[in-house]
Design a protein that fits this description.
Elements: E1 5-6, E2 31-36, H1 40-44, H2 46-55, E3 63-67, H3 73-81, E4 87-93, E5 96-102, E6 105-108, H4 116-123, E7 129-132, H5 153-160, H6 168-181, E8 188-191, H7 198-211, H8 215-224, E9 230-233, H9 241-249, E10 252-253, E11 258-260, E12 265-269, E13 285-287, H10 291-314, H11 320-325, H12 327-341, H13 353-364, H14 373-377, H15 380-397, H16 403-415, H17 433-445, H18 448-451, H19 454-457, H20 464-480, H21 482-491
Parallel strand pairs: 1-10, 2-3, 2-7, 3-6, 4-11, 7-8, 12-13
Antiparallel strand pairs: 4-5, 9-12
Keywords: Oxidoreductase
InterPro entries: 6-PGluconate_DH-like_C_sf, 6PGD_dom2, Mannitol_DH, Mannitol_DH/Oxidoreductase, Mannitol_DH_C, Mannitol_DH_N, NAD(P)-bd_dom_sf
Domain Mannitol dehydrogenase N-terminal: 32-280
């Protein structure tokens, strides 16, 4: 398409009809939030909620400054800066699509080794919330104990170099140290990642890192700071050529558009030490009991993603929606979620576990959301550890068999062998890929070799019943194929 309108503040009044744009004066916005890890999900979710408040003339002093702690974040900063930090959101409903330009982000902190600019920005008293989406694997957790592992090299670097940290947690500690020295109160630290008890985990990461260098600072952070738990939910695919073509079809030149489903949910523990926007005005749920909401979402949606993406990868299925058109993969999700996971999920106001399984079935099946199997299957070492293995552990402790979850783990093991059933290669798709691949190759002949990865499975490797189910499934997958294993489970 020719005559595309380049996205910027100067061109907002030239955007095509039907594209919702900011009605507020962006030049009057002032920052109140630093958000670290500014990817697609944040821009489609938290930034959208704030934008909708601003559309009502509210929260104009809570604008977002993006930030990152890795060198590769600099390219994203450059792309967003070129369009005044505006983002086109494209909502993909099965019945059609709509577009909205979000303007709640007004800057992006320069990215430098040692994170000096980020520390200085967070030390500014105008910043009252530091939020983050750094993915499940970004918290340096021990996969079995779920405690922050301070022996990790990056965290050891921050302990040795507290004024020039490498991690987001080290930068937060350094900024809070400055605020305390200047007589300022702390900011709220807000995790927006898919971790059960994400605020509690973030508190542990920050306080334990501070304690390693400055115990008095750690006590101050723990006593005066706030780390609300939260649950975030919206399916947001990675941006690729298809998404950029969608925004071009609208007549807009946007290098970093975001597509997303119609559904959003944000459940937040109302614990903030320096104020917050009135997110409840635009649909967020503020509550003292986030746990039941996050358990339902993490176990059924995020766990469900792993259940469908691993066989999808093995069978050369491209997207999650395509997986849900495959009767065996869809059946696998429905049976495991309905029979094995739901019994460890409590109802929440307005939603039973069974109804939630139906909701996730519909959301996964949206054909307009081109969410790739490869994206969803990425970092299975964090996601299986966080979403599925805890359910296995609880089930076995309750004396319950989990043949479906054992099959899900066997499918992950088979995927990590690195080939699809059509013979094509599965490229490395996990930070621990080399170790996973080696274990997967050994497990072809000796299935228990996979379970001996005790950093994931712990004493489940010694559970004879679970190990027998896992071994039976993995042997069947290698001998007769993925579809034969799925069919056997569904017909049992």
């Amino acid at each position: 398409m020719t005559d595309l309108v380049p996205l910027s503040d100067a061109t907002l009044d030239r955007l095509p009809d039907g594209v919702v744009r900011p009605s507020y004066d962006r030049s009057a916005l002032t920052p109140g939030i630093v958000h670290i890890g500014l990817g697609n999900f944040h821009r489609a979710h938290q930034a959208w909620y704030l934008h909708r408040l601003m559309q009502q003339g509210l929260a104009l002093d809570w604008a977002i400054l993006g930030a990152g702690v890795r060198s590769y974040d600099a390219a994203q900063r450059d792309r967003l800066a070129a369009q005044d930090y505006l983002t086109t959101l494209i909502e993909l409903d099965p019945e059609g699509s709509s577009a909205e330009v979000v303007g709640s982000m007004i800057g992006y902190v320069p990215i430098e080794d040692g994170n000096g600019p980020l520390i200085a920005q967070m030390a500014d008293p105008a910043i009252r919330i530091v939020a983050m989406t750094v993915t499940e694997g970004g918290y340096y957790l021990d996969p079995v104990t779920k405690d922050v592992d301070l022996s990790q090299p990056d965290l050891q670097h921050d302990i040795a170099n507290p004024d020039a940290p490498r991690t987001v947690f080290g930068a937060i500690v350094a900024a809070l140290k400055l605020r305390r020295a200047q007589g300022q109160g702390p900011f709220t630290c807000q995790s927006c990642d898919n971790l059960q008890g994400n605020g509690d985990i973030l508190r542990q990461a920050v306080v334990s890192l501070a304690r390693a260098t400055d115990p008095e600072l750690a006590d101050w952070i723990d006593a005066e700071g706030a780390f609300p738990n939260s649950m975030v939910d919206c399916i947001v695919p990675a941006t690729g050529d298809a998404e950029r073509e969608l925004v071009r079809e609208l007549g807009i030149a946007d290098e970093v558009p975001v597509s997303h489903e119609t559904y959003r949910q944000w459940v937040i523990e109302d614990q903030f030490c320096a104020g917050r926007p009135e997110w409840e005005r635009i649909g967020a749920t503020l509550t003292d009991d986030v746990h039941v909401f996050e358990a339902m979402k993490i176990r059924i949606l995020n766990g469900g993603h792993q259940i469908v993406s691993n066989p999808g990868e093995l069978l050369s299925v491209n997207t999650i929606a395509d997986c849900m058109t495959h009767p065996l993969i869809k059946g696998l999700f429905r049976k495991i979620a309905g029979e094995e996971i739901s019994r460890h999920v409590e109802p929440v106001p307005g939603m039973t576990p069974a109804n939630y399984v139906d909701l996730i079935d519909r959301r996964f099946s949206n054909p307009r959301i081109k969410d790739t199997v490869r994206r969803v299957a990425f970092d299975g070492s964090s996601r299986h550890s966080g979403f599925l293995i805890p359910v296995i552990r609880e089930s076995r402790a309750a004396g319950q068999d989990v043949p479906g979850l054992a099959l899900a783990e066997a499918l992950w093991a088979r995927m990590c062998a690195g080939t699809r059933e059509d013979g094509t290669v599965i490229e490395a798709n996990d930070p621990d890929w080399d170790a996973l691949h080696q274990a997967a190759v050994e497990a072809r002949e000796t299935p228990k070799a996979w379970l001996e990865q005790r950093q994931f499975y712990g004493d489940l490797a010694d559970d004879a019943g679970f190990a027998a189910d896992f071994s039976r499934w993995l042997t069947l997958i290698w001998r007769e194929g993925t579809e034969a294993a799925l069919r056997s489970y569904l017909n049992a």
